[in-house]
Request: fold
Amino acid sequence: MKNHTSLTSSILAFIVCVALATSTAQATNATEVEPNNIIGDAQNIDNDFSVGANPDIQDAEIWPWVSISARNDGTFDYYAFEVPVGGVTGVFDIDYGSGVGGSIDTELCLYASDGTLLASNDDSNSGDGASGSVSIFDSYISHVFSSPGTYVIGLGEYPTDCNPNGMTGNTPDAGDTYALQVSLSAHVVDSDGDGVADDVDCKTYSDLNPTVVFESCDSGVSNTLLADGCTISDLTHACADDAKNHGTFSSCVAAVTKDLMKAGEITGSGKGMIQSCAAQSDLAK
Reply:
């Protein structure tokens, strides 16, 4: 998929007219993915951050966060994330570990990407973070990062040793379950992973198909990602949002593709192929 860096004023105006979705992130949960049992194979969670209500996460409607649900396979777990600037506070909070589910007595180890150990915790106050913990055996870390970069949070079971370059000792038992809440006072939230941060993305969850598709009709035209975070599919499909009927929808698609062609984003033949697929669809009927 191509990523172009400019749009004509007419395309920008049209985006406003069709009132595409706002950039408010939708709170979501993540699932642990193996293998993630060494720092070098840490599961990246950057695209899972969002902002929204969660009773288990303090300041969930202010700070970007990700809630990771895990069922362990008998190995250590590591998760990687980016810190955009120095001075960011990170909170790492285990919920539903000890006393719930797999009854795991966790330990958390926080690392820089080079393996430098920054912080660790075994037991904590069950009231730390928010709800979700009923035992002091649920670990908790709050840490202020001095510089931007990639960092890794690791999870083991007591007694685990938080050594430089990784954990040793007792691995979680196969079948142990827990929720790891990771929240940062600042993080670039990119819900759809298109490379455009949600706070400047004209559509938080873009259609990122490689080509422009209307239902079963594939136009074959490259679904270009535009600089503001919208794709051609986003623009053309938005025509169905307020269309009174299929005719007004098709007219809107014609106007959008005309502006895209003038902007050099599609060719004349591409314009025709998109319009043909739109006309064959049942959208706005």
Notes: The chain has four helices and 14 strands. Residues 9-23+194-280 form one domain. The helical segments are 9-18, 232-237, 246-262, 268-280. The CA atoms of residues 14 and 131 lie 45 Å apart.
